[in-house]
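Late entry, written up from scratch paper. The run itself happened at the end of the previous shift, but nothing got recorded in the book at the time, so transcribing now.
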Amino acid sequence: MNNEQEKQQISLVDEKGNEELYDVLFTFESDDYGKSYILVYPAGKADDEEVNIEAYALPAGDDPMDPQGGDLQLIETDEEWEMVESVLNTLLNTDEDSDSEE
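Output as recorded:
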């Protein structure tokens, strides 16, 4: 599988005011929660390197890829985390299945 497509990136500012660049894994919307979600990981990591994936919520209608920036929110409920993990696991399992078919 050739993965040379250009990755989308966003900058996040941590609690100390440091700006860090992240690659966007994917975004999705949830009708159940009326929000969009974005999953990111630190930029500059090799494809085979283990990374810590971070997830954030946005109010419905906010675009995380907007250059002005969306209002990223921490995911606070266990129910939302379970839903996000389920979507991520589905994505990862789908990717593994397509990789093994090549």
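The chain has one domain: 9-100.
(Scratch paper discarded after transcription.)
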